[in-house]
Design goal:
Rossmann fold; eight-stranded mixed sheet; two-stranded antiparallel ribbon; about 25% helix; Small_mtfrase_dom; tRNA processing
Length: about 230
């Protein structure tokens, strides 16, 4: 279980368990005081949606997933924020909302060319089978408010692919490359986009190291980013 300070995330019925990627994205995504409507694409256990609900006390968050969302609903009901979080089982390509969203986040399926796993549930989560990058881009463009932002986490090679898919449509404004330890190359990229408007401003870039290299020892910067979400850290 992933333990918030207020409650625990159950994950026994999800094909992929709570991992560092989701925690990083939920903590890193930019949340503005004016953001009132948020969307979590591929919500899974509802972890990121609930992290956003904790961070934005006046926002309403919707989570969508192609798989069963009953686990996410149970987690929301057990949390202090269940009244502001809703979940819908629906491919995002078919998802319709009465209003656009101020913030959209996604920890999407990401392996594009690698071999699929014999476990269909894990394949659906890990591989871009049901949500190709161009479909994700198009869904974001359709559902994002004019001044909204989109945040995503991807492995470094897939991040380059996604940037190419978004060229001219979504503009990168912020990127943090994530290393597991100081001696390892960056394995993940946290990226934030806005609608492309022809501007040429350089994105804000940074780097985050998760672990010190010693067993279960985290860096100060990772602790500072995520400490609000852990029961014990």
């Amino acid at each position: 279980m992933f333990r918030f300070k207020q409650f625990s995330i159950r994950q026994d019925r999800c094909p992929m368990k709570v991992g560092t990627d989701g925690v990083l994205l939920g903590a890193w995504a930019g949340v503005r005081p004016c953001d009132r409507r948020m969307l979590d694409i591929g919500t899974g256990t509802g972890l990121i949606a609930l992290m956003l609900a904790q961070r934005a006390p006046e926002a309403y968050i919707t989570g969508v997933d192609i798989d069963d969302v009953s686990q996410a609903r149970e987690n929301a009901d057990a949390s202090p924020w269940g009244g502001r979080v809703a979940f819908e089982r629906c491919p995002v390509q078919e998802f319709a909302a009465p209003e656009t969203f101020d913030l959209i986040v996604s920890n999407p399926p990401f392996f594009v060319d690698s071999l699929t796993c014999p476990d269909e549930g894990r394949t659906a989560v890990r591989h871009a089978v049901h949500l190709p990058f161009d479909d994700l881009r198009d869904a974001v463009l359709r559902l994002l408010a004019p001044a909204g932002r989109f945040a995503v986490i991807l492995p470094t090679p897939e991040a380059a692919r996604f940037l190419a898919v978004c060229a001219g449509r979504l503009a990168l404004t912020r990127r943090t490359d994530v290393r597991t330890t100081p001696r390892r190359p960056a394995k993940r990229a946290l990226m934030e986009f806005v609608r492309a408007d022809g501007g040429t401003e350089e994105p804000e870039t940074s780097e985050l190291v998760v672990g010190t290299g010693e067993h279960e020892c985290y860096t100060h910067e990772y602790r500072a980013l995520t400490r609000d979400f852990y029961l014990k850290f």
